[in-house]
Structure prediction request, 580 residues.
Amino acid sequence: MSTEPKDCSRRKFLKGGILAAGAMAMGAGIFAPIGNNVAQAAETAPSNESTCNIPETPWPYAALNVERAKILGYDGYYKDRCSYGVFHAVISLLKEQVGYPYTTVSTRVLQWGATGGAGWGVLCGALAGASTAINYVVGPKRSDVEKVVNELFGWYTEHEFPQYVPPQEKAKVKGDLPRSVSGSVLCHASVGVWCDVSKYRAESAERSERCARVTADVAAKTVELLNSWHQKTFVPAYKGNESVELCMSCHGEGRSLENARGKMDCVQCHTDVDPKDLLKHIKDNWDLVK
Amino acid sequence: MSTEPKDCSRRKFLKGGILAAGAMAMGAGIFAPIGNNVAQAAETAPSNESTCNIPETPWPYAALNVERAKILGYDGYYKDRCSYGVFHAVISLLKEQVGYPYTTVSTRVLQWGATGGAGWGVLCGALAGASTAINYVVGPKRSDVEKVVNELFGWYTEHEFPQYVPPQEKAKVKGDLPRSVSGSVLCHASVGVWCDVSKYRAESAERSERCARVTADVAAKTVELLNSWHQKTFVPAYKGNESVELCMSCHGEGRSLENARGKMDCVQCHTDVDPKDLLKHIKDNWDLVK
Prediction:
């Protein structure tokens, strides 16, 4: 007996694949499959691909083990870097503890976040992986997802990374590493501050080990936050950044210059602004607002 | 006849759910489910949840329609913002054109990226959504994913946003909008530059409409890149940022000060550095490197 739902059967899959390959052959290129990817997949598609009625997120949750999250995060980093590392750690624990529907998630789809997104040094990849994992189990309101992600980001800016020390036999670099607080969620700043504090080079094995341990720390914090969210004991500890509060008193919502959005420490980039001498900042920029 | 695979059956799901609820009652709290989420889901779980043998990514691809990506991206923005908007647009087209396994993807899991990640203004959410979608169809090597994402990020920094103009009857704000090039993948910079150029406020309906059109532009570019990648006609056009090349000649891999990673325009934040007077920069920072 088939439990195949109407709308996403093998037939539909083939419609996008082999049948469309015929269409391509007839010149109707725009909707045709490309390369041999589709045909290959059609051959190897599992017999039970009828999976359309996957429930909408948020999915069920069961409390996860913080210590295991660290180990999985650390190992995941060395498999496919920070973003994959945290995502794989949290989803793997959910696969173990809950099973379906997490068993349908391919964790490889967070590869892109490494080195702050394809090497760009933007959002620390561990946070991209963590945020996506959080989004599977918190919601459906975006405002709820943002409460947990905001707390994680805020914690990250104030956390002394890395805390995790892997077991001696597992560690790629043995022993403790120097620690630093980056004040930022940017990979570029997080790595740069640590390099300056530790004196290790940005492409060294020690910096890589540091990021593996950051991955472990972020995976553990993510699990802690999710456990507390689902236990209804979640209390945000992050109070926001002082410079953001100050700058947004002119540049924020409903204020006279309302031209900025965000919560990153303003003066870490806007180094020409001294929050203790805003009069100078206003004078310096007078021509821009006149 | 059941096609249920061994490892992720309803039994396994229940193991993490109802059975564990018993364990909690016995005081073994750490692996117990929390709240009524699990029990509820067990009741409503579909009868065909046996979906473990979802193939590993990358998944099959069929050429997608760029114009439809724009419309879906625009609509998605108004449903759940930029990050969800691009992700939902691309995955929805893949659901239509390929079907399974894309039919197993919950697009809501990209809610977190809105306003550069939970309101933080970091990576433009449209790029987070796009990158995750790209990761489903490019790979399995991370270096391949990064080639496409790098091209998208580079294009974003140089693109005059927004180009898309929705049909009159659909537009929340009618007509053309002012355009700007942000030189950055940061939501904070992308929005800030546009506000300064357009003179619209950061929380205005016009700025929101601008971001809906950015979502459309990014969804379209993502589809263009994916089509070319799978047609094997992908040729990267982005040449990198000039200041990055200059600064990395000292701070980059294998160089004397190797303490930086990333590809974002350096001098957009490091405003105290004049790339045309590096001698001053070196003198100013001499004490730090001595």
